[in-house]
From TrEMBL, chain A:
This is Chemoreceptor glutamine deamidase CheD. PANTHER family: CHEMORECEPTOR GLUTAMINE DEAMIDASE CHED-RELATED. It comes from bioreactor metagenome. The keyword Hydrolase applies. The gene is cheD_2. Its EC number is 3.5.1.44. The keyword Hydrolase applies. GO terms for biological process: chemotaxis. GO terms for molecular function: protein-glutamine glutaminase activity. PROSITE patterns: PROKAR_LIPOPROTEIN. Keywords: Chemotaxis, Hydrolase, Receptor.
Amino acid sequence: MSELIKVGMADYKVGKNPASLISYGLGSCVGIALYDPMTKIGGLAHIMLPDSTQARSAENPAKFADTALPRMLDDMLKLGAFKSRMVAKIAGGSQMFAFANATDIMRVGERNAEAVRNVLKKIDIRLIADDTGGNYGRTVELKLDSGIYRVKTIDKGEKEL
Amino acid sequence: MYEDILKLSALQLDALREIGNVGAGNSATALSQIINRKIDMTVPQVAIMPLDDVPNVVGGPDAMVAGVYLRVFGPAPSSILFLLPRDSAFCLVDMLMGREPGSTTSLTSMDESALMEIGNILAGAYLNALSYFTHLTLLPSIPALAVDMAGAILSVILSQLGQMGDHALVIETEFTTATDDVKGHFFLIPDPGSLTTILAAIGVKE
């Protein structure tokens, strides 16, 4: 059995083959998997909000797309990963409740996904799989032996990205 | 001004617990009358917890639950969430629709409406008591329903709180039928700033 590392809400973890990184029950949050296929080093971030500069409290950098990603990237580089080989896969960012007059608060999932794409562009990491949106929750698991990013849902089946 | 929930006094926490008690008592009575069964409720807990701990109250982020979500409008905007384990929701629907216990295994749109209506009634009863107590006019939005993982459902509220800090203040009560077949958690989660209004309204400023 390989080690299963849990990533909580507003947290990120990095690891090496043969571990797996898993995060349960993402709704509007986005799970970002970064992976270096050569060294089999990967990281999984579970971000809640798009932008730390818009928030009143930015104590926990792992909570925001713009601060979590650069930190996770750094930690992976320290483990020996190479940025030029890294690829990104993302999932989550759904809108769990549909109200007729969707306010910005309700659309946080969409804004999260958008922010993650922008940050990836900025730090120059290729986004190769994107399973965001919808109105359902997801559990995500990054397998560090293969880089497969498994997305499980309750009614919408399971996919491997 | 946004209050610091980590700095509330014991007296303030007690006052919030009492508010939860009055509100939940009203809701439990309403639920009991609708399904014509005895309902037990726990003493409400006022918990201040790290955001990622909140899903553990209902069995962890991947627990399968049905959630009815309402926004509260007025001088103290808040979120109300009535969360039931999915099996409890099915059981409740059986009672509401007069079906054999255990016959519901997925929700039709009529079943969904029934659950939302329950959320509506519980929230209305809760807010009535709260309004009476605080002399604040608090009105619920129309309800929305999701059946999914607890973490996913709660993320809607937690991400709002996350803008302000890393902790949530939740006023939570558990309802249980005497036969233990239906269990539900009722959450009132005040928006940042609303606690100050509520506490001032009942005269417990510190």
